[in-house]
Amino acid sequence: MTDALVPLMVLLPLLGAAVALMLGRRQRAQMAVSTAVLAAVAAIAAVLLAQVDASGSGIAVAVGAWPPPFGIVLVVDRLSAIMIIISALMLLGVLVYAVGQGIADQHRETPVSIFHPTYLILSAGVFNAFIAGDLFNLYVGFEILLSASYVLLTLGGTGERIRAGVTYIIVSLVSSLFFLSAIALVYGATGTANIAQLSVRLAELPQDVQLILHLLLLIAFGIKAAVFPLSFWLPDSYPTAPAPVTAVFAGLLTKVGVYAIIRTETVLFPESDLSTLFLVIGGLTLAVGILGALTQADIKRLLSFTLVSHIGYMIFGIGLASVAGLAATIYYVIHHISVQTTLFLTTGLIERFGGSTSITRLGGLRRASPMLAVLFFVPAMNLGGIPPFSGFLGKVGLFVSGADAAGGTPATETLGTSSPGPDWLIWTVVAIGAATSLVTLYALARFWNLAFWRPKAELEGYRSRLIDSVQEAPAGATVVATRTTPVLMLAATAALVALTLALTVFAGPLFELSSRAAENLRDASVYVSIVFPGGVR
Amino acid sequence: MTASLTLVIVAAVLFGTGITVMLERSLTRVLIGFLLVGNGVNLFMFVMGGMPGLAPILGDGVDPEAMSDPLPQAFVLTAIVINLGITAFMLALIYRSWWLAQLGERGDLIGDEDEMAEDAEETADLYRSSEEDDRAVQAVLDASDEDGGRA
Q1: Which residues belong to the signal peptide in this entry (chain A) (predicted)?
Q2: Which H/E stretch holds residue A188?
Q3: How far is B124 from chain A (nearest CA, A)?
Q4: How close B61 gets to chain A, by Cα (Å)?
């Protein structure tokens, strides 16, 4: 019975997109369809998570009843179910926000009739990537979500968005070409694309061939996850999109890449040992990203840089190669998806209310809108890692497992046969991580001080060392302050802020759930046994 | 697994030329480069299926060993469809970018009145030229009439 629910998570958004396209002229009906579809997917994911968590392993569905190595197989284990449920909730929240925005200004430049179908197709791609049990199906999931994201990013086709879109699209195309070549090579070397079967067959290949395939896949996923040397495209392309679109991209798309990296490390190549590489890359991503954030005057660009920077925490967690590290990473992914999405939505509200997103032109927002101040302050402190929020808990979790791995505490259980990197390197990255958290706090507090606490009257001729070093966004976008903040937009943002707070309140059970998800990933044989209960040849 | 060397060389050439063209500044060339590399990757994936063989349909007396591997072909078909869609989108994007470069944001704001004025000018040109044509034709006819009269 529940098996039938698994493909529905991809089918429902796709069918919903078709229906929404047909209802192009009836906005209210479109909204009803997309909201219902996303709510249904969230409900299905909740049911599946409960079932998978109770059974302790996972569900594998052979599409079209073709037995696993030949047909496409969809796999839901704890990690997939967690990722889908948090994504569906975020997509739902942002959809309500977007609807509120659409109702408020009836924008001429936003063709609302294609927004809903494209948004649902993006959702279908994200969900498909999370449940793909086949490398090629993962590629298809990526392509579905990327194609939809091209349309959403260039929505309205203004000069600025086309410029940003071109960078994004070409970088994504190159990453797809890498991924496809990697699949071709993997298939040539092993004769299969089924992830569970690959887990067994890749291990039989010579070490050097394994390393080439491994690195090729990591480059493809690294571009998507915006990991340091491959992250250059992100801060230039995300901030130009409409606020709800940026929020979804920032929250979800990079995490799909992180998810793929986790799968690669735990199922495809559990034997190979790239922990040191991951630690170095994680540390560099943290440091370079946050230094970029420091010099930005524009809050959207600042947040894009913190997004890149905080991906470093997840890469660090993966590089620890321990069950505890992975558990902390999964918790951090959940935290980061929700808090980053919420912050971008709040930024959209700031843009509407203040008429700008630059700290040199904003002031007096706290007095003007106390509600907006609360909605910004809570997630900002959360991202900055102030106790007791989930950002603090996630970072502490990562640092503790880092210290355990470096100190060689017997409590640390390594993943597969891989060993953690050298101790001094782990300590260094932990230090960089702590510093990054403080610098994030500094950058956000500076924005808070200038935009919210500084009286509007002082805006003219304001001199401060705080804003001497910042740079404006390259193309100063003309934003029209509307001053009207629809209730629906505020409500959606408030609901997401409440959700980030819930992650803090229920941190205990959530962390235990993440630990159980990580426990499933300790050994690739768990994943293999989900797909091939009777063993694999 | 054995593979055809010719196909491998063709794929390599497609990769090389495609990447070179992709590094150019012009968007159209980037697209052409993407198409070349994309086809290179597809060919590469096709090569990974091994040597060609019989159609992969199970029947009496058909040796499965002699069949070609259908899976890479299915992969390639999917990838071709995806490439087609992305190419269409890229072409629209390039056209849009060209439009903006030619007219700037103003291009979208050409109102109905401006357009009607332009249309009126064009029609005026048309009428004027046809009148001139008529006059010229008439002149020729008149001249020939005169010649005929003389003859």
Answers
A1: none
A2: helix A159-190
A3: 34
A4: 22
Q: How many domains does chain B have?
A: 2
Tokens 């977007």 sit on residue: A98
**Could you tell me the residue range of the domain that residue A274 belongs to?**
2-461+482-529
Do B7 and B22 lie in one domain? The reply is: yes
> Whole domain around residue B21: which residue ranges?
1-57+64-109
Same structural domain, B120 and B98: no
Q: Do the Cβ atoms of B75 and A170 come within 8 Å? A: no
Domain co-membership, B127 together with B139: yes
Mean pLDDT of chain A: 86
Alpha-carbon distance of B16 to B10, in angstroms, equals 10
Structural domain includes residue A536? no
Residue of B nearest to A157 (CA): B96
Partner residue facing A136 (CB), from B27, B34, B75: B75
In one-letter notation, the amino acid at residue B2 is T
How far is Cα A83 from Cα A95, in angstroms, rounded to an integer?
18
> Quick one: average pLDDT of A99-104?
73
Work out the minimum CA distance from A5 to partner chain B, whole angstroms. 25
What kind and span of H or E run contains A75? strand A73-77
User: Which one of A136, A150, A184 has the shortest CB-CB distance to B48?
Assistant: A184
Q: Are residues B103 and B140 located together in one domain of the fold?
A: no
Q: Specify if A537 maps to a domain.
A: no
Question: Is the domain of B44 the same as that of B100?
Answer: yes
pLDDT value, residue A109:
46
- A31 in a structural domain: yes
* A181-240 residues touching B, CB cutoff 8 A: 181, 183-185, 187-188, 191, 193
Provide the ipTM: 0.85
Number of C-beta neighbours around residue A2 at 10 A: 14
State pLDDT tens for residues A400-439: 988 888 876 655 566 655 666 788 888 999 999 999 999 9
CB burial string B106-140: b at 16+ within 10 A, e below = eeeeeeeeeeeeeeeeeeeeeeeeeeeeeeeeeee
- Tracing tokens 């209802």 back to the chain, one arrives at A23
Identify which of B78, B93, B104 has the shortest CB distance to residue A140: B78
Q: Is the pTM of this model over 0.90?
A: no
CB contact at 8 A, A41 and A88: yes
SS3 A398: helix
* Residue B43 and residue B89 in one domain: yes
Q: What is the pLDDT of residues A121-147, one digit of tens each?
A: 999 999 999 999 899 999 999 999 999
Confirm whether A213 is domain-assigned. Answer: yes
CB contact under 8 A, B48 and A154: no
- Residues in chain B within 8 Å Cβ distance of A162: 93, 96-97, 100
Could you tell me if B115 and B46 lie in one domain?
Answer: no
A114 interfaces chain B, CB cutoff of 8 Å: no
Answer yes or no: do B146 and B80 share one domain.
Answer: no
Question: What single DSSP character describes residue A252?
Answer: I
